[in-house]
Amino acid sequence: MNRYITLRKKVNFILLSIIALIILIFGSYLILKFKNIRLDNFYEHKKNLANITLSNVIPGIEYNQIDFIRGFFARLEKDKDFAFGIIYDNFDNLYAQHIRKGITLQYNSLEKRNFDDQKYYVIVQKMIAEPQGKLGTLVLGFNRKQIQDEISTMVTQIGGFLALLALVFTVLLYFLMERVVIQPLKKITRATERVAEGDLSARVAFTRRDELGNLGAYFNEMAENLSRNFDTLERAKNEIFQLQVYLNNIIENSPNGVITIDGDGRFVKINKSAIAMLELNDGPLIGRLIYEVDLNFLKFQEAINEVAGMKRSMHFDREFLKIAGNEKVFNILIYPVDYLDRGGIVILIVDMSERVSLEKQLVQSQKMEAIGTLAGGIAHDFNNILTIIMGYLSVLKFQVKEWRILDKINLIDAAAQRAAELVKQILVLSRKESGKFNHINLWEVLEGVLKMIKEFFPRSIKIQKFADDESYPLYGDKNLLSQMLMNLLINARDAIESSANKDNGYIQISLKEIYVDSYLKKFYNVAEVNRYVELRISDNGCGMDEKTMSNIFDPFFTSKPKGKGTGLGLSIVYSIVNNHGGVINVHSEKNNGSTFMVLLPIGKDGKSSVKEDEQQLLHGEGNIVVVDDEPEILNTVTDMLEVMGYKVQCFNNGVNFLDYFESNFMGIDLVILDIMMPEMDGMRTYTRLKDLASSIPVIFSSGYFEDKLRNEFQKEVGEIYFLPKPFSIYELSRTVHQLIGTGDGEASSGNGGESPVDPGN
Questions:
Q1: Mean pLDDT of 203-209
Q2: Which of 101, 146, 375, 421 is the most exposed place for a label (fewest CB within 10 A)?
Q3: What is the pTM of this model?
Q4: What domains are there in the chain, each with its CATH number?
């Protein structure tokens, strides 16, 4: 505890010192003055007494009256100060003496006298008489003690008086200083203490117009200014605190990782996004070296030192970091900041993994779009050619009875069907063709595919299937999903045959239902929260490296030897999965097998696919107009319709047909319109036709008509019938019969071909 001397003590000390000094000076002067006066009186009195004695003893000496002299000396004892009286003769020999009792003197002559001058006041006077001259010497001694005691008593009395006077003055001055100085200063002190304790409302009440009053007024003004400034500072402090909280919340809740380190590379601050991105969860981080906590930053140590030294930022794009055994992609910005006297570094981390994945998907989509553009360019002409081939083959099947020739026709027809399927796959691959969706059961589709591949899969490959249930309802295209399963299984078979496990290979197929919520959505990378069927196909084949996996879904990419693969299998799988609103992922290691995982959204209900009608040719009657710019197609469709029993009239463009129709519309029962025609295409022809006669049914046909364009056209004109090229005679008969059939048309079966396909509507 610090001790200090109060102002009151200081003032009292000063006052007492001043008063003591004054009293000391004044008392000393007074005592000396009184002492001198008293001594002067004493000496004067004794000298007078000596003169009286001298005048009385001279006659005694003249007449030699010793007794008279001794008697006179005895009378001198009435003077309390008288000590002794001695008379010496003219020869300084002792003549007479009188010594007061209790006093001892040593002497024999005047010359050899031994008087204690310190103790006695000695008066020596010559005794001279007329006419005798000198008679002798008179010596009188007076005791100094009495006068000294008297002077001491006097000094004591004066000192007491002065002390009393000093006390009175001190008390008066104390109360005066207390009232005039100390009390105002105490008020200022108490007010100052309150201000120091934080009470800025403290004020000093002063009405006097002196220095202390001015001091109090200045203090009040200062306190008022402090109060205003404190309020301003508090508001500023609160704003700064709120700003700090706001900035801290921005940093802490930023989706990007923010790390701050000092000049030595030790953590100063790290937000939760950085902790989550880098998966740092081994205790407190502040104060630890960043290079020890995460070894990934060793590759940036030189850059961090350069940023700290050169005071400039550095940017790293698409950096691959190893996080918990997995590679992730980050953009990293390193820039300097001021931190204490050592400087600091901020490391901004942006997780680009999802974006890189999306970019890969975008590149994949662009590749698909390029294939789609190519496919769309050739689909129309190629399908027109296939329509001619397949149409005439269908007609020939009903005209030729020789089975050997019929077998060759069936072989040609099968090849044409495969060509048509190839075009369809290319359109599906490019997402120009969405397929025909129905309610199906994926388990039943899988069972059908497994039965089909059983014949051409090696016996050494064991196929195992696992499922929690046998009902996995989807809304999709059965043929496309069968193609997807077929391609994945064939890919697994080829991988096994190319590995060291070809003699004991296995393929595992599992189906299960999962629910992908908002948390799992980012891991599965699906479009929406939903229930999904998870299909996994795993094999113990040759596996793939990372470079191969990054290209497996590219069109025409294949790792198989020349002549062993087209490079379309997995591309078609990728497109089919996308067309069904699903996702596909793959995990593979070189020489350690592969696993393909497919997620497909479950249908809104559990309906299975409708059973397809058996292949049959429906006959009928009526007048049908065919409008197409290809003469061969006109001839082919005419022959097919005539086999069914219909009368046919052909036009090579919409303008000629409409000119004819304006005067002969009463005899027409059905119009088959090609969409892609010069001068006037099928859609404009249809619009003009409906203005003239809205009741005549129309079938659209085209070798290439995107689903998007068809949907837009349907929104404008309503429901339409669409028959894609190439089509078989059975599909044509069924579509025509739906529109103008009488309900009792004769049906006949052909000697080969394919199952009918329902027209789009």
A1: 70
A2: 101
A3: 0.43
A4: 7-155 (3.30.450), 254-351 (3.30.450.20), 435-601 (3.30.565.10), 617-748 (3.40.50.2300)
